[in-house]
Amino acid sequence: MSKTSPDIESIVRDFATRIEAVVRAQLSENLSSAFAVLAGNKTSAKPTVAEPSKAAKAAPAVAAPGKRKLKLTPKGTAARKVQGQYLGLLRGLRPGVRLRVQKVAREKGVAEAIKFASTLK
What we know:
Helix content: 55-70%
Strand content: under 5%
């Protein structure tokens, strides 16, 4: 049995029906624009972009944070290179052979596994 009150249930039901109506409206709009493109009427399929409000135009722009620069040591770079070689070799192997290479990597290290996998190809 549900422990929520009838008021909360009615609010949730109302919210769900509103969301469903919005999704149906968007789907209908997307379908009609797709059919317009197929029919050759390219002008009606063009999406409309709303103009920004005066408040948005007047607000100072805040710079978005840039992509973080990855700082790797030479040792880290070498480790990534070896890992890439290992994964690249694993990709081309059959499942049974791949398991043998992974076992060598666990027991003797990735460098030995690379040597072993390159002899199998």
